[in-house]
Amino acid sequence: MARLSVIGTGYLGVTHAACMASLGHSVVALDIDEVKIAALSVGTVPFHEPELPELLQASIASGNLAFTSSWSDVAVGADVHFLCVGTPQSAGSDAADMGQIRAAVATLAPLLSKPCIVVGKSTVPVGTAQWIADYFEANSPAGKDVHLVWNPEFLREGFAVKDTLYPDRIVLGVSHSSDVEVLREVYASALKNDAPLISTDYATAELVKVAANAFLATKISFINAFADLADKVGADVGTLADAIGHDSRIGRRFLNAGIGFGGGCLPKDIRALQARANELGLGEQFEFLKNVDSVNKSRRARMVELAREALGSIDGKTITILGAAFKPDSDDIRDSPALDIALALANSGAAVQLHDPVALPQVRARNLPVTAIDDVSEAFANADLVLHLTEWKNYRDLNPATLGEKVSCKRIIDGRNVLDREVWSNAGWHITYLGKPGSLAAL
Ligand code: UDX
Hints:
8-stranded mixed β-sheet; alpha/beta; binds uridine-5'-diphosphate-xylopyranose; Rossmann fold; 6-stranded parallel β-sheet; 3 domains; N-(1-d-carboxylethyl)-l-norvaline Dehydrogenase, domain 2; single chain; 44% helix
């Protein structure tokens, strides 16, 4: 089994470290945040991710996984180093902030004194991998014997463990074909389960990740533009998505209309791609991503507008919001459409009663002008309007009859188009959707 290190313990790094250790590899994971390292060392995952705490604890107990904040532990203790640090959006520009990548590479390079492979997994602007490879060659004692592989990561929050253990595909950007054999051993389990392996150059590997995310974001904004059109003409965007989704060239997935995408990846990745395309003189070709972004942002404004239409005026009204996370099975509130809408309504004078099954600690930590309520039925108290904004499964199982007794007005707008119209209507609620017939008329 291989000796691996994982540099950076965010969603990607912790999941990768725990999964690789669970497969029998010996893994040491590093972060510069010592508080995080202390928590991870005792098996505490600092975010919500199904299956991960159990896997982390089992991997620590097996002796296969250790955490450190010492770079020399990493340099000495591993032969394959996975670079998993964040590349968030830069403050004040659309480009990716490469500070964490640069810092990690600059710290690691002088410590690499024997042959090893560094495997980049972070999402980066195309061209970064070649720069990193050159940097290691010029600045590591092992020089040319430090090889770089670019291996983008496609895991989804909420399914991170499954996506890591059973990836759809493994992409390797390499400059030495012998490195593919080493990575084949590291990923032997996934390959045994028939994950396709695509071996290519650095630039293609980097682009695979940003192209995949740009395509997914485009699909969502495409169907959301049709949701607006459906509202204008009385069509049903759900049926439309089902019908076009039967065409296997199109596919049904990622065609769920609603308040759009958020999170730590899709929004910043499409912006970083545009910024990189601009730098390369291809701004016009990638202009469409501006529209993808603006259609997506307009979903949030549309929901606020629908609330205003429903209430006459937002000021002084009580609004219950179901969901704060950017998607279910996650407590991530980065660029969350639900939270953005909650804040816009609060800033327009509404008393916002916000519920989420797991994300409320993150909301409370940000000291926002909303009331975070742990008990979902309490969150309905005296509401003039309810908005369903993150499609947690337990919201689909709510009892609208009981909840109807708590509210001032039985009106709900489903920003994710998943609640059962019949169930809510039969309990006396006006339920409306985005891009489904009757939506606007009912208001
Ligand atoms: C995404 C990519 O899917 C993943 O491959 C990549 O590694 C990281 O970015 P993630 O950010 O976890 O993963 O979320 P994803 O499941 O892709 O959902 C993104 C957003 O799109 C969510 O806000 C979700 O609610 C929204 N979405 C998704 C829709 O609005 N409609 C859909 O049909 C699907």
